[in-house]
Write a structure and sequence with these properties.
Elements: H1 2-5, E1 21-24, E2 30-33, H2 40-44, H3 73-79, H4 84-97, H5 99-113, H6 122-127, H7 130-139, H8 155-158, H9 160-175, H10 185-197, H11 202-241, H12 250-285, H13 291-307, H14 309-312, H15 315-324, H16 330-344, H17 354-366, H18 373-389, H19 396-403, H20 411-425, H21 446-460, H22 466-481, H23 484-492, H24 504-523, H25 539-566, H26 571-578, H27 587-591, H28 595-611, H29 615-628, H30 636-664, H31 670-689, H32 697-711, H33 716-738, H34 744-764, H35 770-786, H36 808-821, H37 840-862, H38 872-875, H39 882-899, H40 901-923, H41 932-946, H42 956-970, H43 988-992, H44 1001-1012, H45 1017-1021, H46 1028-1036, H47 1052-1063, H48 1068-1080, H49 1085-1091, H50 1118-1125, H51 1181-1189, H52 1198-1216
Subcellular location: Nucleus; Chromosome; Chromosome, Centromere
Keywords: Cell cycle, Cell division, Chromosome, Chromosome partition, Coiled coil, Nucleus
Coiled coil: 223-276
């Protein structure tokens, strides 16, 4: 029987041939001896050709007369140019002529769609079993490429999948009335696809699963049509039978009965086919190891349940979707959710989903927090559909878990959550009576909904995120959020009888939400952090934006003055209200004849300035004046006059108060100081956005600052605001000069004022008050950066007299400030925490402030305002303060390397030398090399080594200079033990060995020769433990066959570089030149600099093999000499393991720009030499230490090392002449 053919056995073989035997009569017509269900199917297959001579006329499945120019089915579908209907009709026609040949075509079509180059021949089709054919095809599969048609990229294959699926769908649809019931075609296809879907070859499995699932979907459509026809036939039969006997047509009853019977048989047949596919393919492949295959299965079962819910929408099938929601791949989880959305969307199906919902609801709710944002979005949308179907399913806890997602930084998630929130809280509106006048203001239906929004915002306790809440609700609730008339009424009008008035906290929240809705409507883009880049607005969106701005201006131009008057004493409310005018269309003040409201607004702003001293309020007033003072509009003169009058009063008052304050001196009381401070705050806030050059503020502020220095008792807030105000004076003068229209006298004046102010700030760096010092430091860094050599770029050469370079004393003070105020423990920063040590928010704010200070100084290094060598004191903190400042220090190293690779390398080695000296002063010369301090310096050196990347050619000069400085430092000071002992800094070679892997092979030889100039013959023979750093360093420089594997101290890090170094072979002339220079040239700094033009080692002071160098003998090295005279900033010994808990071994975290990036002078290629993948060469410290602890002193034979080095040098010399 047909059903027996479809038993999905995975191990037994099923023949491709039908159970029906075909033989040809003399007319060529096929006669059938049917098996199973009588002759019914044979009757439907009349006209089909049996296995005859035409099969021999086919070559590899090509039709000879199919009208497709002998093209295979695969080629036709691949091209996708022909209408699929005609392709299928041609195949059906060929099937009627010769069904074996046509089926062979179809079999080869599926094989070729899998990417297999093999072809099933007619002989294989007749004689071989299913499993044998698949095994043969597997052997002929191209294993060189992992691609196959469903995965190949490119335009040619882009539409292949859709064409492939369409072909299967059309094939079943065209065959649904006869061929699929002939017990032959479907037997063959389902048997083939079931076998292929069980293959170990991914291409076979993927393609056949897709084909089987699409075949199943097509059969579901057929079954659905059959079901509809059966219902119609049954109704006709019932109607005919219910007629009276006289009118009843018995022959019609028999026909309808026979038709119903045939339809039932066909439906049974289709159900058998679907069962075979489901049990033979789906049940095994929905948990396939390949996510794409699992996704196909889940996607299609969702289609089946939606199309034919009577048959498939039950727990037997739903359970597969429920189970798969726990899939580890996001794309599969996504298919589960989209499949369920199609079911929950139809409310008629809700009753059948009750058990599933109760069982898997918690999982769906948890998926709203899925790590894949697409999955989270669809999970929220699914819950919204569940919410629409019934309110009882989701508990308040379930809803709350979705509510908070309106504050998500990912906009699609937030918008989906906003729709959920809107449906839950705002779907119940008060019905409006028909014919009744529309209610406005606080009587409108939106009034309660706006209150609900306020209540929700306050309950969420995320008050600073109103903009995110508004953005989340904007797409679904814009009409509600744009009801500004109602919001204004809620704030200004008295409550209705029986209505509860808004509390002060609720009014504050409503004003903030109102401001955010105005901003969203006027700017038409999401808040910071949610934007996906600039989007081009459509014409409709632009029109809506203009209409909204007009509505905003018309409403708030009238309402803003009374709102300001009502809340004039509330700083928070006033600050938000004052930001509204920047979104106005100012032309409407004139066209709408609203000048009297403008006058009222200006009066209110002036009163607020006089009442408040809060910086945020004053800056909001300043921004409002700046928005209104637009020369393009006719209201400019009116606003400009009001602004000038206000500033005149403020400056006159400040001048008068300051004179009295300075004259009274120590006799001035707190009230006088408060008056001066409040007036100065107002002037400073306005000077930020307005040019106050017409008032001589520099003289009065400088006099105030000078008095503060001389007396030392000036209140800190007065000093801070005076510094800021003077800073603005200088910046506004520079802005005017940059336009090129000023006189030479102005240039001279600005030069004098700027330099005098810089000296004043330098003096304030030593102030006792931390806040004053931080303000002075920040302003100094800004001024030094602005007035650096870069200010003349871009055609501003006339500003060259203003260029200012800091003196050494100022550089030293800036560095001292950083070391004393940034690189400190969190618990030590008591000045800025006001006793709230346990408050995490305060600690984070203090850390943020310190990061800004460090970034300001690092920008000075990056833009060459201060000497690069000052960065050594910063770089040496990299490990200890990695969690707090690691990204800033790493970016600084990257930038300095781009500016000057050699100078950067010298700075890095200097930082290690400073740490080494600090360790010696703390532990003494007899320290243990296994101590945490020494291991910390070695680990820092390893980190520095990784930042050089893998391109040894780029960093060749820098690495060579680094080794030169390191060697000289190691042998600089004599042994404290006297003649014959190791030099004081010899252990530094152990640290230097971390950089050996970055040397090219020929440079290793050169460095080794340079090292030997500092060694005596006795040194090379020493075997004591104290000489181990020298021996191991020499060993790391041995350039043998596998040179880097001999670096015993660098572990695997050096090996990672050796592979690269072997591929890079510069001309041997460089290596010969290095050898010759070190052998013949005398010791001079000039020769060193010349030799560095070709990356070679500098000849050091010539040493013999029998005498130690005089430790007091000077070397011509200005860089090191300068540093020996520079005062070092010693701190307590660093415990590098203390802060290392969060330090990842791979030094490849993304560089966070934070406050580091300047708006001017950006350098390209930020990641050069920094962002290399170091995972293969970055060995965990524990493993390094383990390997190093296993080294025994006996491993080193100094004599043999010396012999090998001599032999290798001889071999190298010989090779250079070849």
């Amino acid at each position: 029987s047909f059903h027996c053919l479809y038993v999905p056995t995975r191990d037994t073989d099923t023949r491709f041939s039908s159970d029906t035997d075909f033989s040809e009569d003399f007319d060529g017509r096929s006669t059938t001896s049917a098996k199973g269900k009588g002759g019914k199917k044979g009757k439907k297959a009349i006209g089909d050709k049996g296995k005859g001579g035409k099969a021999a006329g086919r070559i590899n499945g090509h039709h000879q007369e199919n009208g497709m120019e002998n093209m295979m089915l695969f080629e036709v579908v691949k091209l996708g140019r022909s209408a699929m209907q005609s392709v299928v009709d041609d195949w059906i026609e060929s099937y009627k002529h010769d069904r074996d040949a046509a089926l062979l075509d179809l079999i080869n079509f599926f094989i070729q769609c899998s990417g297999c180059k093999g072809v099933v021949s007619a002989e294989m089709f007749r004689n071989m079993q299913n499993s044998e054919i698949i095994r043969r095809m597997t052997e002929e599969f191209d294993e060189d490429s992992g691609d196959y048609p469903l995965t190949i990229a490119g335009p040619q294959w882009k539409k292949f999948k859709s064409s492939f699926c369409e072909f299967i769908s059309v094939l079943v649809r065209q065959c649904q009335y006869s061929i699929i019931y002939d017990e032959y075609m479907m037997d063959t296809v389902i048997s083939l696809l079931t076998g292929l879907s069980d293959s170990q070859v991914r291409a076979f499995r993927h393609t056949s699963t897709l084909a089987a699932m699409k075949l199943m979907t097509a059969l579901v459509n057929v079954a659905l049509n059959l079901s509809i026809n059966m219902d119609n036939t049954q109704r006709q039969y019932e109607a005919e039978r219910n007629k009276i006997v006289a009118k009843r047509a018995n022959d019609r009853l028999e026909l309808l009965l026979q038709k119903r019977k045939e339809l039932q048989e066909n439906q049974d047949e289709i159900e058998n086919m679907m069962n075979a596919i489901f049990k033979g393919v789906f049940v095994h492949r929905y948990r396939d190891s390949i996510a794409e295959i699992r996704a196909i299965c889940i996607e299609e079962i969702g289609v089946w349940m939606k199309l034919y819910s009577d048959a498939f929408l039950n727990d037997s099938y739903l359970k597969y979707v429920g189970w798969t929601m726990h899939d580890k791949q996001g794309e599969v989880r996504l298919k589960c959710l989209t499949a369920l959305q199609g079911l929950y969307y139809n409310r008629e199906l809700n009753a059948r989903l009750e058990l599933f919902t109760s069982r898997f609801k918690d999982r769906i709710v948890s998926m709203t927090l899925d790590k894949e944002y697409d999955v989270a979005v669809q999970a929220i949308k699914l819950l919204t559909l569940v919410l629409n179907s019934t309110d009882e399913v989701l508990t308040p806890e379930d809803c709350e878990s979705v509510y908070h997602l309106v504050y998500s930084a990912h906009r699609p998630v937030a918008v989906a959550a906003g729709e959920f929130l809107y449906k839950k809280l705002f779907s119940q509106r008060e019905p409006e009576e028909e014919g009744a006048p529309k209610r406005r203001g606080r009587q409108s239906p939106n009034a309660n909904l706006i209150k609900t929004t306020v209540f929700f915002f306050l309950e969420s306790e995320l008050h600073e995120h109103a903009a995110y809440l508004v953005d989340s609700l904007w797409e679904c609730g814009a009409e509600l959020l744009k009801d500004w008339e109602c919001m204004i009424s809620l704030l200004l009008d008295d409550p209705l009888p029986g209505e509860e008035a808004l509390t002060d906290r609720q009014e504050t929240a409503l004003i903030e939400i109102m401001l955010c809705t105005v901003r969203q409507a006027a700017e038409c883009h999401p808040p910071v952090g949610r934007g996906t880049g600039k989007r081009v607005m459509t014409a409709k969106e632009k029109k809506t934006q203009l209409d909204d701005r007009t509505k905003i201006t018309e409403l708030f131009a009238v309402a803003l003055p009374p709102l300001l008057a009502k809340y004039a004493v509330d700083a928070e409310k006033v600050t938000n209200l004052l930001l509204l005018p920047q979104f106005f269309d100012l032309e409407i003040y004139t066209t709408g004849r609203l000048e009297k409201h403008l006058e009222a607004l200006l009066r209110q702003i002036k009163e607020i300035v006089e009442k408040h001293t809060d910086t945020e309020v004053l800056e909001a007033c300043s921004k409002t004046y700046h928005s209104l003072c637009n020369e393009e509009f006719t209201i400019f003169n009116r606003v400009d006059i009001a602004r000038s009058q206000l500033l005149d009063e403020l400056v006159d008052k400040f001048t008068r108060l300051l004179e009295d304050f300075l004259r009274e001196g120590e006799d001035a009381d707190e009230d006088d100081a408060y008056q001066v401070l409040s007036t100065l705050k107002r002037i400073t806030a306005f000077h930020n956005a307005h040019d106050l050059s017409g008032w001589d503020l520099f003289t009065s502020n400088f006099k105030l600052l000078n008095t503060g220095i001389e007396n030392g008792d000036m209140p800190e807030q007065i000093v801070i605001h005076s510094l800021q105000c003077t800073h603005y004076v200088i910046l506004w003068q520079l802005a005017k000069l940059s336009e090129g229209s000023s006189r030479k006298d102005d240039l001279v004046t600005l030069r004098k004022q700027m330099r005098a102010f810089c000296m004043m700030c330098q003096r304030y760096l030593t102030n006792v008050n931390t806040a004053v010092k931080e303000q002075a430091f920040t302003i100094l860094c800004d001024l030094l950066l602005i007035f650096s050599h870069q200010m003349v770029s871009g055609g501003r050469e006339h500003l060259e007299p203003l260029v200012y370079s800091p003196e050494d004393s100022l550089q030293a003070e800036l560095l001292t400030f950083i070391l004393n105020h940034v690189f400190i423990d969190q618990d030590d920063d008591t000045n800025s925490t006001d006793g709230q040590q346990d408050d995490e928010a305060v600690k984070i704010e203090a850390l943020h402030k310190r990061r800004n200070l460090l970034a300001a100084y690092c920008k000075l290094i990056i833009y060459c305002v201060v000497e690069m060598k000052t960065g050594a004191d910063i770089f040496k903190q990299y490990m200890r303060y990695y969690n707090d400042y690691g990204d800033i220090i790493k970016e600084t190293m990257s930038k300095t390397r781009q500016i000057d690779k050699i100078q950067c390398a010298k700075t890095l080695i200097l930082s290690l030398q400073q740490l080494f000296n600090e360790m010696l002063s703390d532990l003494g010369h007899g320290f243990d090399r296994s101590s945490s301090a020494f291991c910390g310096i070695k680990e820092l050196a390893r980190r520095f080594s990784l930042t050089f990347g893998l391109d040894q050619v780029k960093t060749r000069d820098a690495i060579a200079m680094l080794h030169k400085d390191g060697i000289e430092f190691a042998f600089k000071d004599p042994s404290p033990q006297g003649e014959g002992g190791p030099p004081l800094n010899l252990a530094f070679l152990d640290i230097l060995s971390e950089f050996s892997s970055k040397l090219m092979r020929q440079d290793k030889r050169t460095v080794h020769m340079y090292l030997e100039r500092f060694m005596t013959f006795q040194m090379a023979l020493q075997r004591e433990d104290c000489w181990l750093p020298l021996i191991s360093y020499r060993n790391s420089l041995q350039a043998g066959g596998d040179d880097d594997t001999m670096s015993v101290m660098s572990g695997y890090s050096s090996r990672g570089s050796s592979v690269r170094s072997k591929k890079i072979k510069p001309p041997s002339l460089d290596g010969y030149h290095s050898y010759r220079v070190l052998s013949e040239e005398s010791s001079s700094g000039e020769v060193w600099q010349q030799s560095m033009q070709t990356p070679v080692m500098m000849p050091s002071p010539h040493l013999t093999s029998t005498a130690m160098r005089d430790p007091k003998r000077s070397r011509d090295d200005g860089y090191m000499g300068h540093h020996q005279q520079t005062p070092q900033h010693h701190q307590t010994p660093m415990d590098y393991n203390r802060r290392g808990t969060g330090l990842m071994e791979e030094d490849e975290e993304p560089i966070v720009e934070d406050v580091m990036m300047s708006s001017e002078g950006r350098m390209d290629d930020l990641n050069e030499g920094m962002d290399f993948d170091t995972m293969d060469i970055d060995l965990p410290p524990s493993k390094n230490r383990r390997e190093r602890s296993e080294l025994k002193p006996d491993y080193f034979d100094p004599a043999s090392i010396m012999d090998e080095s001599v032999n290798e040098m001889k071999g190298f010399e010989d090779s250079t002449y070849m």
